[in-house]
Amino acid sequence: MHKIFSILALFVLFLALTTPAFAARNPRSQKPPSPPPPTATTTPTQVSWGAYTGNNDQTMASFEAYVGKSMTTNAMFWGWDSPFPQTTTGSQGKTLLLFWEPWMGLKPIVNGSMDAYITQFALSAKAYGYPIILAPFVEFNLNEAPWGNTVGGNTPQDVISAWKRIHSIFGANNVTNVKFALVYNNVSIPAASYASFYPGDAYVDYVGIDGFNFGGQTFSQVFSTAIAEAKTFGKPVWLFSTGSVGPKSEFIRDLGAAGLPWIWFNQSPFNIDAESLDAFKSII
To answer: Which of 37, 177, 196, 223 is the most exposed place for a label (fewest CB within 10 A)?
Structure first.
């Protein structure tokens, strides 16, 4: 589904929070006056943030130069036909987020056919040595990708079985620098509860949501129900892919006010309207 988003994301960039105003004291006054009431602004977010800018360090650097600040999390989409990525993300002090996409589907994972590949990938991640958030088969609750629910006969139990097998292989190889993120689409198609795909607390470090404003939707319309459902698991909740076609700035401000870690879905070029860019900069 991210390929659909990458087209839309050419036109966007976002998220917001404005700078608080602080009352100035009068140094000559024996009794400083009471500060004025705060203005209706918000404070810059302190949560982790990042972006998908393309699967290489060059686009990451270009994006950071455009927005004027280094991100804390660098996202990449990675297929199962590829070895572990070569990147300087970790040495730059950033967390590497890998959306790991099994284009052959879930069945080969469940039946053990992919064990050797998973083991090699796990060992490469361990050798990398820096923090990684691994998000296998994101948006599995959609009927779109080969790993999606109902595609090729996939069931929620297939998602759970494949997830547990991957997690167990990483655990058996003592890959302690990897955290696992279970990333849902904000809406399940066909309809299904988030709980029906949940493999258990021992197998999940973060619960994530992907959601986009494709035009005319508010942040609340996109995310409020999904966030409430994700929080029922008691795990840290991230917005792992998000973006907005328009209106941008309103969606950005609400996203910033949510206080959740977020990943902006974007690809080069990074030019957007000035108002949205200002909003984005104000919160990072």
So the answer is: 37
Q: Which CATH number goes with the domain that contains 103?
A: 3.20.20.80
- Residue range of the domain that includes 175: 2-13+42-283
pLDDT at 269: 56
pLDDT value of residue 236: 98
Number of structural domains found in the chain: 1
Would you state the pLDDT for residue 44?
Answer: 46
- Look at residue 28 and tell me if it is in a domain: no
Q: How far is CA 58 from the centre of its chain?
A: 20
Own/partner long-range contacts of 175-178 (Cβ < 8 Å, ≥24 apart): 175/122, 175/123, 175/125, 175/126, 176/126, 177/125, 177/126, 177/128, 177/129, 177/130, 177/131, 177/132, 178/122, 178/125, 178/126, 178/132, 178/133, 178/134
